[in-house]
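If you are new to this repository, start here. Below is one unmodified record pulled from the training split, so you can see the exact layout before writing a loader.
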Amino acid sequence: MTPTDESGGSDESRESVEFDEFSKSDESDELDESDESDESDESDESDESDERILECARAVRAELPRLIGPLAAERSRELDARLAQALARPGDVGTVERILLVLQSEPELRTWTAHFLESGNPPRYTERGDYQPLPGSGEAVPATRYSCPDRDFAWYRAFLDESPPRCPTHGHPLVREDPPSC
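And here is the target side for that same chain:
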């Protein structure tokens, strides 16, 4: 399923194109023995891409009510249940494809997902309003990540005064994960 934008060249269509590069293809390629090293590299890239998609699914669960809106609470719960079910079995064949179907099902989710896959953070973490940084070369600071011990839900703190929610699947308090040090 390829998202399209009828208006031409909006930000959403550009984000959708970037998101499409993470979508899985049903095509199968035949490899001969000379391509064994390429196969290993592709497998590593595929695993990395799969993990990014799984992390995106964990993170978007916290944002669904805001993204889908209060008038579509039932739809938000349905999408959350589908993501939770897929994340409960991350190693199963087809898990990433099921997650991608959910992430592509709503325009708001496609836009959010494209941003997350590109930046590694939820859009609300990087939104700054009218803020203009000081000139110079600064670096983005990674968001503080909290996750369910059962690894099916993640939440990123954008502001210091925010308290982490509980896991909607298990009711567990979320555990803070420190970013890896360089």
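Two things worth knowing about this chain: The chain has a mean pLDDT of 78. The helical segments are 11-20, 36-68, 73-87, 95-103, 107-119, 123-126.
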